[in-house]
UniProtKB/TrEMBL annotation:
Signal peptide: none annotated. It comes from Penicillium angulare. This is Opine dehydrogenase domain-containing protein. It holds the Pfam family NAD_Gly3P_dh_N. Residues 194-342 form the Opine dehydrogenase domain. Keywords: Oxidoreductase. The lineage of its organism: Eukaryota, Fungi, Dikarya, Ascomycota, Pezizomycotina. PANTHER family: BLR6086 PROTEIN, OPINE DEHYDROGENASE DOMAIN-CONTAINING PROTEIN.
Amino acid sequence: MAANTEQAVQSVTVIGAGPCGCAFAADLASRGRSVLLYGHPDHRGALPMIESNDCWLNSDGAITGRFRIKTTSDMYLAIQHSRFIVITVPSYGQDTIVRMLSQFDLRQHTLIMNAGNFFYLAARQNLNAHAIMETDISPYAVRITGDTVFVKGSKKSLAIWMEPPTNQVERLSPQSDINLRHNVESIFSLQLVWCQNLLQVGLNNINPVVHCPAALMNTGWIESTTGDFYFYAQGMSSSVSKVSEKIDQERLAIARAYGLDLVDINTYMNKNYSHDRQFRDYHDFAVGSVIHNKTKSAPTNMKHRYLLEDILYGMVPWFELGMKCGLTSPTIRSLIEIASVVSGFDYFEQGRSLKSAGLGESTKDDVLMALGGPIDKMPSNPLPPLVDTPLQTPFPPHPVMPTPQIAA
């Protein structure tokens, strides 16, 4: 968290009104921040629920209270509200948000993609933001039930990465880098672990390890019960957990090939979710996690984000990164191929590939440099200072909406 209150960000825009976005809004509002929650006009998420409650957001669980939230489906107003924008849309909605944000001058804005899933690969050539950051995973285990956001729990820490500077003239002062990081830390209510390379964040996202094997190996149960079972305690049996652990071993091998030393999934879970005991292995975690078994949480069908997000935007780039190092990652590849059969389209072709980011023909070293460089040779790359003053750069014209919609 921020080192002192003087560097605390007072207003934040949250893009994405799903469970994570609502939890983020409640968390920020509970700490006295001014929050504007944006929902796409065609996918407004929980905005109607909040607006029907006179713009009060009900939250229960780890974040309890009733919070006043501003809402809008006008991206222009969302950008005006704050220079700090947290994006919480699922990965398959990120390209839409990038296209919308590309219409605006964002040179005074900091974008924080939560969770990233290599968001920077899509944004690096399309947005002129002051800074682009992404985290490895969502801070919250959360569901929306009725008119209430139920926050089952939150993690203890998040890995976060900030893009390397492209304009050395503008980015000179080491103190400005510290100021920016403190600003961002004040937005989160948990510890941020700053990474030097995007691969540290993208390969540290354990969601594909957790979700994909269990979803694919429980296809019959999901389709016959529409997800009426405990995804963790029942769906992650001993055998399913072995596949997750094998996926995790291949993930760690890819990380080591790029010079990264990441923790295994069981260590990660013990660090973030243990209570009165340590989990012996991954299966022990799946059965014993109090947070993850508060609700059933199983996908209701095989078009769930556990496949569409975690394979398309997680496993596919993992596999390609491994291939750059001569690693075939057979279990990861097998799951991608099985998911392609189940979903009826080629995940390799549709996923977030290095080719789509202009890195298809790049060598391993080229990819490493484009995403931050070797972690043991990283130069200090500060950003220009941010001060709490009104925006000075005028916004470009934006598409006219029938009525600019903002609810206070």
